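ugh ok so i messed up the first submission bc i forgot one of the chains. this is the corrected input, ALL of the components this time, i swear. 491 residues overall. if the numbers dont match what u have on ur side tell me asap before i send this to the collaborators (the ones from the other lab, u know who)
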Amino acid sequence: MNKQPTEEQLIGYLYGECSSEEARHIEQYIKENPDVMKEYEAFRGIRKVLALAEDKEVLEPAVHFDRKDIVLSHHPSMAGGYWPGWKWLSIAAAIALLLVAGNLSKTNFEIGKGGFSLSFGEPTNEAELKESLKVELLAELGKRDKQLIGYMDGKYDHRLVSVEESVNEYGEQLDERLQAFRVQYRQELAVAINRKLSEDETLRTLVAGMQDSNRRAMDEILANANIEQQQAILNALNEFNRYYEAQRLEDLEMIENGLVILAKDAEQRQIETTQYLSNLIVSVTQPN
Amino acid sequence: MPDAKLKSFTQVESAITGDREAISGLVKVWYKRIYNFCFRYFNDHDLASEASQQTFINMYRKVHTLKQAEHFKSWLYRIACNSCNEEVRRQKRTKIFSVFSLSTPIDENNEQLNKMRQHATFDPSVQLDRAELAEMLFEMINHLPPDQRVVVIMKEYEGFRFREIADTLDISENTAKSRLYCGLKSLRRELERRNLTLETLLS
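and heres the new structure output, hopefully the right one now
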């Protein structure tokens, strides 16, 4: 192999994951190039060193299943030396740090019968402090009482009257508006009723008109129908009369013709009878 | 198929169907491997425990989605990688709010820590015992960038082939090799910086 093997090829060769042909070429190249040989040997050395870091021994956790999930509970004696007390130690350290910070900032923390107190700065005599606080508190309470009484006497009454007036005024306004609304509503209702009645009357007139015209139309239709019917009957009777007359004449002619034929027949038979009698007489009188 | 492998395959098949006993068995079989993988990733027992636990919880929740039992190993390590990454993110979030952090710092950009590590040198006259040497190696691995660190651990300690690493991390084989190359190179530099020679270490 004339070409220098790539990083990937060298690694493949180092771990024995390349084709035999490729391995042969790389081996040859390494032999011929001391720098590459040095790198390759260094990698082999690293691999040997890494092999010294063996697996940590660890106990597998106990496996449980709850309804949905798997639960792995670690054995307390697991290798690696995790100490559960670290958590508590960290909390204790935090409290200690707070105490140190409190000491530096002259924080006074006191737990008494009724609770605790927190203060900053130099602590003072407790009795004096209580007395001064009592005096301050009483003075403040007296001041507040006076303010409250003044407020009740003056501003509160005035405000109450003002509110009452406002309420009355508003009530009157409401009454007026209600009255106006009633009037307006009645007017609108009357207009609506009138409009409704007017609409009903119009409808009634329209229906009556329609009924009248319908009646007239029906009378006309019936009258026309009667005339036409009478005319038809007359025509039919006339036709029948004409037919009857013609038929009678034909019958008379036929009877007449029959009689003529009968008369002719009787006359012929008389002639024939006469002829026959004559012949008979001749034959009888003149035998051959 | 050898008996042990067949047993493992059958166990995974049963786990896929939701057999809790089989899942429990898989935890027992794989816990040490996954814990050590996570430990080498974090060099911290608490974080490794947390990440391994999360790995098996996720395994239990998702095992029914595994299509082929023979891909179980790659699949499990992918979950482990994701759990480690998630744990790193969680630690970073927690760190913002935590004043008293007792865990090992894992911020890759912690300049002070990096400086301390860079200046840490080794006195050849002092003989390291096995545990100290392992601790130092774990620290050095932990100092690698995460993408190189994972490949180094998978290749050196978990016995993955490059094809398996590529499948697990969803990268190409060449990328896996390249990351390993960079990782080994960084470790070599780190050993040199600490005045550690192979002869010293291997003696």
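quick check: Chain B has ten helices and no strands. that seems consistent at least. The longest helix of chain B spans residues 72-97.
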